[in-house]
Prior knowledge:
Strand content: 15-25%
Number of strands: 20
CATH class of the largest domain: Alpha Beta
Shape: elongated
Distance between the termini: 42 Å
Number of helices: 15
CATH architecture of the largest domain: 3-Layer(aba) Sandwich
Structural class: alpha/beta
Bound molecules: ligand BES, manganese (II) ion, zinc ion
Amino acid sequence: MFTIEKTYKKENVAEVLSIGIFEEPEKFSHLEDKLDEVLQEQLKELSSAGDISSKKRTVSIIPTLGLSGTKRLAFVGLGKKKKLTKEVLRESFGKLVQSIHRKKLTAVSILLDSFVTEAISVEKVASLFGEAFALALYNFPGYKQRANIPETKINAITVYTEGERDTVEQALKAGYIYGCATNSARTLVNTPPNLLTSTDLANYAKELAERYQFEVEILDKQEMIELGMGALLAVNQGSDEPPKMIVLKYQGKEEWTDVIGLVGKGITYDTGGYSLKPRVSMVGMKTDMGGAAAVFGAMEIVGELRPKQNVVAVIPSTDNMVNGKGFKPDDVITSLSGKTIEVTNTDAEGRLVLADGLTYAKQHGANYLVDVATLTGGVITALGSDKTGAMTNNEDFYGKVLEASKETDEMIWLLPITEKDKEKVRKSKIADLDNSPSREGHAIMGGAFIGEFAENTPWVHLDIAGTATVNGAHDLGPSGATGVMVRTLAKLIETFEPSK
Ligand code: BES
Ligand code: MN
Ligand code: ZN
């Protein structure tokens, strides 16, 4: 897939050569020794005629008409050099590969060094390119009888760089792995709910375990009953599909210490249960296992890159359905932790399955917890569809998650959980907790409820209800599932250092 070469020579033959150009300094100044003189002259003309733009988020593809061994040049406009951010560069690479793909070209060359700035090293450029390449060309084939003929895809990439070869190659590959794992999560989320049950998720986990030598444990309903996972079981009561508690373990250290626990909401379909969703808001609830998908995606990266960390991934999974046996508002249930819960809304099911998920992750030795969940419509109202809502019981650990999210440009934003918020989830008259005490600030109520099960373990809750899907196509992929938080969770694990 990737070939790395040192210097681009005019004789090199390529379908398309990609070059980054800035508004300032002078567009082609950094290319003078790279392209031949005739071409240089032409470029200046094309540029003043507006055929080549250096404005950010533009791609200008021009044929070289036999003037070069390269058939086409793709100029990627990057704006002012000092202002270029890695986020814009990632998206620009996305735009670039999408433009090349649209022309049905299958081989790309790139002058990597033309994208380097003071703030963005050649290594970073390489990883952003690898990541964007995987992300931008993702598509979910779907199930139409007259499917599109299998598309031609870019399958050969030649990278020219004066940078250190091994470093660039590793960064390129790591970026590509990040992108591919995100795509795996996207596919899980895009898959219709009749084709992706809890059993299917469990089988998916087994495949991951086999591929990456993870330890795997799948609890079935009977085992859950014996262990007392009353919260997950309550949500499953109205379903004909058996629930699964899925555990994957990766041990990258000698001892099973400083264990990071990832807990993903694995509701394969959310009708709301007896607190039934209105017909319009039910559509799309196949994405309610987006948290699980993010955790699986992160584990895929862990399996590929094998960092020196310990990770336990826990996915409590079921659908939330209605039948004569379904749980109902007013029920009181006992969670795995022993805490009792008054159910006031069966549509607040995510926090119930996560309650048992968090407790189970702790039983498996998790010392730090991150849960990821499409938990509340409230977070969309509060933060929109481009920010993941975060809550925590530990500022220090949150700082680490925040740093990771800044690396991947998956924006997260902290919402508070106050003592009064905690009192609200504890205010049930007949049980320890109420699963849906208030319509006010209900993203926070969700977080506060889950926090009761994290207890004193450093914990961050990520509500991805808004960010798990996107309405329109963009530079890094089509509409539908985004695979949000795959990269942030993986980056957290890769860079994690326990606090002293
Ligand atoms: N799965 C939903 C949240 C959701 C909403 C995800 C929109 C994706 C898009 C969750 O289980 C839910 O139903 N939440 C309720 C919580 C309420 C009952 C406290 C909500 O957001 O209305
Ligand atoms: Mn719900
Ligand atoms: Zn839900």
